[in-house]
Amino acid sequence: MDQPETTVESANPDLFWPRFCPWPDCAAHHDAGARRVRFRRHGAYSRRCDGRRVPRFRCPCCRRTFSLQSFAVSYYLKRPELTQPIARGLVAGSAHRQIARSAGCHHATVTRRSQRLGRHAALLHHLVLRELPDTAEPVIVDDFDSFAFSQYFPCTLPTAVGASSWFVYGFAFAPERRRGRMSPRQKRTRARLELRHGRPPRGAVREAFRRLVERLPRGPLHLIADADPAIRRAVASMARVRLEVHPNPARGPKGSRRSRAARERDRAMFPNDQLHRFLRHTEAAHRRETIAFGRSYNGLIERLALFVVWRNLVQSRSERRPRDGTTAMRLSGVRRPWSWDDVFARRLQPSRVNPPEEVWRLYRREVVTPPLIRERRHTLRRAF
What we know:
Elements: H1 31-34, E1 40-46, E2 53-58, E3 65-67, H2 83-91, H3 96-103, H4 107-130, E4 139-142, E5 145-147, E6 154-156, E7 159-162, E8 168-171, E9 174-175, H5 184-197, H6 204-214, E10 221-225, H7 229-235, E11 241-245, H8 260-268, H9 270-282, H10 297-314, H11 340-343, H12 350-353, H13 357-363
Parallel strand pairs: 4-10, 10-11
Antiparallel strand pairs: 1-2, 2-3, 4-7, 5-6, 6-9, 7-8
């Protein structure tokens, strides 16, 4: 997927011309209809935040009007200049309040902008995956544990990483039940919360792995994983999958030498383990014993979607060797690393991208965090 030649924000207002109608129910919304449509200019207005002149157009099919801002990521934003600083802060490990102090805005502004960036990143990642050729490299799959709202609501975010390219093919989500060592008081608290909100559904982790593998590129698939039984059950009925298992061996005391089995396992799973260490270090919500944990499952997923796009398209494959390029350059023929201007070059509309149901759930913020049953969903009519 090549970089955009120019961004909508920097386009010359006198030369900009729409390629489609932004209204989803219009016949000219898709490319097939737009090729036969001649949009007409319908005046202009001055944008209040920076005084920039924004042209307006009228669609001859649905007779509705729209402007250049309908195609920009900054549509309906009062402070569009905050988008890139907030995106950089999110992937740099800053919490929302820290970003707000640096950017000079309210922390709720950072939260809302983070939601928008996550939705945009999910659609962009789907477009990148759609243009990838059938993968010939092995793909490493492993789970990544985190939690939202409190440690009584853990979840797993399985990730899929290319063994040679280190390209992050995607991730999934599944709620889990709190486990591990707990005091009697913590066990009573868990029982009380489960009585109020219910337990996570059985087999949720297996279904998450299944959805993740199904979204990988077509063709024969060589999977590398540990001995997690959820992965085995998820791919048992998939004829195209060949599973290579590397069990997690027993480890000695900290600082002791690794066994031969441990070295083989770490060598085979290195790209995915490196991604998880990168997430623990870079994402504030995933650090151990953090006070910046995610307040909802939707927030975790949105920030992870932005991180995946940054990791694949913007960040170098190796920070020690930036000349190696990005992970996407190893797979899809991208000529150079993307910049944040390329990532936010234009608005992506889900009605044109046509993402799978898993991405739709993320876009509409339909993943329910049990204590937040009234969490706000994304159901805006004109800013969808």
